[in-house]
Amino acid sequence: MSARRVAWPWADLGLKGRATLREVKQAYAARLRAIDREDPAAFQALSQAFVAAKKAAKPDDATPQISPGVDPETLPAARPSM
């Protein structure tokens, strides 16, 4: 496997490795501002890296963890904290 495939999608987003969803979103926004918006190939490559990185992102405290196969719509609503 090539070094590019090992580092993808993280390197395309300017990240050193697997990151949290929040870090992925921040990196994507920064790269989006930096690319040439007239270059569809650059946007497509960045978009594909973003989608892949979101799927493989580490969970962070702000991301609720739901077991696979559980429909989030069937979960009880969160109670307001006091």
What does this structure look like?
By secondary structure, the chain is an all-alpha fold. It contains 3 helices and no strands. α2 packs antiparallel against α3. The longest helix has 17 residues. The N and C termini lie far apart (52 Å). The mean pLDDT is 81.
| Strand and helix order | HHH
The largest sheet, given as strand count, sense and whether it forms a barrel, is: none
Helix segment tally: 3
Q: Report the end-to-end length measured between terminal Cα atoms.
A: 52 Å
Mean pLDDT equals 81
Shape assignment: elongated
Attribute tags:
82 residues
Write the layout of secondary structure elements.
Layout: H1 3-7, H2 21-34, H3 40-56
Helix pairs in contact: 2-3
